[in-house]
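Continuing the series of single-chain predictions for the mutant panel. This is the parent chain; the variants come on the following pages.
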Amino acid sequence: MSTIIPFHGTRYDATVVGDVKQVVAPPYDIIDGAGQKALHDRHPQNIIRLELGLDQPGDNPTDNRYTRAASTLRDWLNSGALKPDAQPALYYHTIEYTPPYAPSNSSTKTLKGFLATVKLEALDSGHIYPHENTRSAAKTDRLNLLEACKTNFSPIWSLYSDPQGTVMRLLEEAVKGTAALIDFHDDAGFREQLWAVTDPAVLAQIVETLRNKPLFIADGHHRYETALNYQKLRRQQDGAPDGQRSYDAVLMLLTALEDPGLTVLPTHRVTTTTLPPYDHVQSLLGATFDLEEFPFTATTQAATRAKFIEAMRTNGRSIPVFGLALKGDNRYVTLTLKPTHRPSAQASPRTKLDVSLLQHLVVAALCPTPQEQEAILYTKDDHEALDWVAKGTGTGALLLNATKVSEVQAVATAGERMPHKSTYFFPKPLTGLVINVMEE
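Parent structure:
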């Protein structure tokens, strides 16, 4: 069902650019303006100059950040700063990290995966499943860049099921005893390692193992849909060519659904428009939820907050439980969905999601207009959400538990899409470790 294609990855040559840590970057969609400028200034060959270049005064259709990226890419390939590998490979990649927002004494985890190109399939093919909706502006930007550079700079992150761990075992045996091509601690302190696996027998086994397995897009929906749009354009330009072309595949990081190193973070909602006082909130939500209050004073706030978050996490493992805090109100509140309002076993996977229930039963009640909902802020950090309310940046914090990987799989398999800002898979793969320069 999925076609994995070993490829000639293009990588930075450290003898030309120096420390590879200085030329890679986080995914473009989590970089703000200050981060973009800092990465641009960090190194003259940082990947940000290709992936997310700076706009300049006087930009026009023939001279803009997309055309500059294409020109810069050609220069780096000609100078040897970027070099294609001689042999087709799959790139075994690990990220050793400490989960964010975890207690300081938490142990590290290691995400394991591999970089490959994967044959593009229609999203209704039953081969590659999306799980979130996308927005058109981001796809237009990515298509402009892809048309100009004919290169995948950032991998789409996808998941596959491999309960026996066959693929990882093959990769780990292939690199056992060999030094990593890339080995450094990134800006977050995570250890990034990369090996190229080129043994044709191993590659063939991995391709065959995954041939009948569907893939679930974890992160990069915009880039996948953009790759499909680019493929359509190129086929029109080339007159529907025979055979597989380089634009018929896209760069992916592939990770097993069962990988214990995979983390999914919740995305909390913080309202910024006026909310009713707590007694009115009680009347709005009381028929649907059991409300448990955690009152605090200035001296007990920290301990009460910890108890409140722990209650939401623990009780939310088996039933939908949300957290609530209102500006100017000295209490935290857990909202436990009453049994009579819980979705039936026959309900669609999307309907059962905590994030769907929060949207329909809480957000819609407290922020009934589209304008109020568009003003909502998002954060993955429990404490940041609550602090925004305490400091007046927000008027109400709505906390939820993380979506389970199995729930993402169920929604995608059912052909549904999750609400906006439903999942945040972690840790995000860096841009620039390996890129896919297309031949045509």
